[in-house]
Amino acid sequence: MTSATQGPTQEVATTVSVSPTGALLGAATLKPHLLECDEASFFDEVRSVCADQVDEVKSACLAGFSPQAPRATMTTTTTTTKTVTISTTCSPTATPALQNGDFESPNSLEPWYIVKVPKNTIQGGHAVVLDEAAANQNHVFKATLPPPGTRDLKNVLPPHGKRRGFSAVMFDQKLSTCTDAVYNLSFRYKIEAPAGTTEAIYIIVSITNGEEVINLSGRNMPSVWTLATGSFRALSDLTYVKVSLLRGLSSGMDEKVIYLDDFNIVAV
C-alpha cells in the first residue's frame, strides 16, 4: 500500500501599513484572511501586530460599512387640506325674478307654461300676437274664452244637462326668489268684448300657496290698456306665479278676449 505524506502547511503573511486616513499601505504583517473583514478575529490579530494603530486599521477595513457612511432616508410628505366655506346671501335685486314678461319671444312662451284647467272647465285658446293698435307693434299675450257649453257639447254638457261653469286659460312661471323678500308685481291688461257684457270676467294672479296677489273681476272690464299692481312675500327660494283668466256663465254666444302684457316682478 502506498501512502502519501503531506508536508507541513506554510503560513503566508501579507504586509500592510495603515495611513492616518485609514488607507492600507503595507507596514503591519497580517494574515491574508484578515483582509476579509471578519471583525471579531480581525481585532484579535491586529492587537498583536499594531496595537497602537487599531483605529486606523479598523477604519481602512470597515470603510464599506462604517457608521459614518451615508444611509438611505425615507421622506414623508404631509398634505394639509383646508376647507373653505363660502357663505352667500340671497340678493333679490341681483337678477330679474321674472323672464319674458313682455312676450317678445313669439315662438315660445318659455319660461311661461300653460296649466291644465280644472275639471268642469272649458280650456280656452291662447297665442302670442302683435298688438296692431300699438305704435311700436309689440307682442302681447292673447287669451280667447268661449262661452261655456259651446265646445264639444258631448263632453261639455254633464248628464243633468247643465253647462259647465267656466272657460279658462291658465299659465305660470317658476321664479327664483329670496325667502321673506317682498316683491312688487305689475302688468297691463285690456278686454275685448261687446258692449253691455253681462257675465263676469276674472283675472287672478296667485303664488305658490294659493295666495291671491291680484284679483280683477267685473262685468265692465276696461277695453284700453290698464295697469294692475300687487305685492307678495316670498315663502322660499322658489315661487310659482300663476295667472288665471276665466269667464262665467253667459247667455250670449260670443267669445271674450283678454290681452296681457308687460309682466314685471321686482324686489322692494
Give an account of the 3D structure:
The protein is mainly β and 268 residues long. 9% of the residues lie in helices and 36% in strands. The protein contains three helices and 13 strands. Strands 3, 4, 7, 9, 10 and 12 form a six-stranded mixed beta sheet that branches. Strand 9 and strand 10 form a beta hairpin. The longest helix is centred in the N-terminal third of the chain and has 12 residues. The N terminus is likely disordered.
Query: Averaged pLDDT, please?
Result: 73
**Tally of extended strands?**
13
Low-confidence runs: 1-30, 151-161
Sheet with most strands: 6 strands, mixed
* Assembly of the depicted chains: single chain
Give the H and E element order.
EEHHEEEEHEEEEEEE
The CATH topology of the largest domain is what?
Answer: Jelly Rolls
The CATH architecture of the largest domain comes to Sandwich
Q: Strand fraction band?
A: 35-45%
The top level CATH class name of the largest domain: Mainly Beta
First CA to last CA: what distance? 131 Å
Task: Compute the number of structural domains.
Answer: 2
Helical fraction: under 10%
Which descriptor suits the 3D outline?
elongated
Can you count the helices? 3
- The structure class reads mainly beta
Radius of gyration: 51 Å
